[in-house]
Amino acid sequence: MKKFLLITAAVILAIIALSSLGHIIGMAISLLIVYYSLKQFLKTESTLWKVVWALIGLIGFSGLLGSLPAIAGIAAVYILYTGYKNWNKEDVAAPSQDDDPFSGFDRQWNELENTK
After folding, report:
1. Helix 70-85 and helix 21-43: axis angle, to 10°?
2. Which keywords does the record carry (predicted)?
3. What are phi and psi for residue 110, nearest 5 degrees?
């Protein structure tokens, strides 16, 4: 049952990631525009070109705000990745009473007493 629920969640996350693919591409392009305009803004000396690069940066930033649903797609891809990475990991079992030397101290003491 646990595997069935995990597979169902993976299918739903894959659908979310695929439906957000356009927004993710738009966000990447907007980030590139904002990054490039910021670099050019800091590099230029002319006031006119600073205004032009600032306007280009604001246009890129508005495109970045328009593609905010990409965050859901990125989160879905990340959850899918971590789920895939941890799919076949063994569950770490708690140590049993026989393996823990402190839980069976009285039993072991009695065994030592009987061997004398």
Report:
1. 110
2. Cell projection, Cilium, Flagellum, Membrane, Transmembrane, Transmembrane helix
3. -65, -35
